[in-house]
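Figure 2 data, in text form.
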Amino acid sequence: MHGTDGRGRLGSRTGLALLGFLVIAASFLFTEHRAHLFGVLPYLLLLACPLLHLFMHRKHGGHGKGAGDHTEDHPGHHGHDPEGKNK
């Protein structure tokens, strides 16, 4: 049997040849298409902004009293009063 000496499939001659071929193919793909990849990066950053906005707003827990609540800083702000009293 092939690969039973503890080296696994990538340790065999066929596996090493396949690994070498994949490295060469990946390097050719990267060098030939580098302009296309780097041209898309600014758009990927712009698309990441809304996703980050959605994921970051989940952490502060809504609109209740918390560490991020600044209703005292703004006297004209009419916040929710859980006790039913007016400010």
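Caption note: The chain has a mean pLDDT of 75.
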